[in-house]
Amino acid sequence: MSKKKHITSVGGQALIEGVMMQGPRGVATAVRKPDKSICVEYHDVKHLKDKNKFFALPIIRGIVAFIESMILGYKLLMYSAETSGMEDIEDVEMNKFEKWLTDKMGDKFMDFIMVIASILGFALAFVIFFFLPVFIFNKLNALCNMSLTPWQGTIEGCMKIVIFIVYMLLVSQMKDIKRLFKYHGAEHKSIACYEAGEELTVENVKKCSRFHPRCGTSFMFVMLILSIVVVTLLSLVVPVQLKQNTIAWMLIKLPLIPIIMGLGYEFIKYAGKHNNLFVKIVSAPGLWMQRITTKEPDDDIIEVGIESLKAVITDDIEDDEIKQ
Questions:
Q1: How far is CA 307 from CA 40, 45, 80, 182, 304, in A?
Q2: What are the DSSP E strand ranges found in the chain?
Q3: Residue 19 phi/psi, 5° resolution?
Q4: What would the pLDDT profile of 2-26 be if each residue is shown by its tens digit?
Q5: Cβ distance 319 to 5 under 8 Å?
């Protein structure tokens, strides 16, 4: 008997000692608790596209989905840290001053710390991936007597890719991140097993690939590739004087980010349903990067991935399709 394959847009995210999945039944998380049991919980998530059809339009939906996924991902990371017992470990490691602040300010202190950390994170990302390529290019271009100007968009885009790869390689060496990447692998392998029509067992999931075209890593790489194309075309029409001004050039490119984000989202949706040559070529760099951002999971981690996926799929419909 041939296996029934599932056409699906089920997606997820690796958490601290857990996995989040989003499917026809909604959003669910499975987190390994300190007592080794798995806590499966559904989360109430409301999407803007369900409130207003404008937010469901192509391109627009990609921008909205990205922002919503960032907010949801942050909330669920905090939830998984608490459920997995990581916050208890952090409490033990706090110094006296930190404990005093926590006792006096309670949750407000932690919220304040998280807001500051988020702001610093965005600022660092802006400097590394937005300011640095422009700054380096201007220095190189000056050394080459401005002969690189026609290739500004292409060179800046290639530098972003190099910076991104180096950054991910460095981050992947951290102990906690290595374990997070194992949960990322379990998420991909569980979905691949389900899409192949296999029974969701540890042995079946272990046989599946941890590389998947519908992944945040692939999305980031698609955005980088699209940015090279879009910014290269833009650089052909922007006056040289403006491009040589680092601040002005960044401000000109800033409005393009949502457009590139929306285009990248549409491609990832398309790639998840097609396997033609065009998809393979554009998806190849992102799939390669998943060798860094996913690791082969242990059996206990696979169990968590399976439980999170089972919580959001249905058995009584042919296609477990999330209406995006």
A1: 7, 19, 15, 15, 5
A2: 11-15, 18-23, 26-32, 38-43
A3: -140, 135
A4: 466 666 678 899 999 999 999 888 8
A5: no
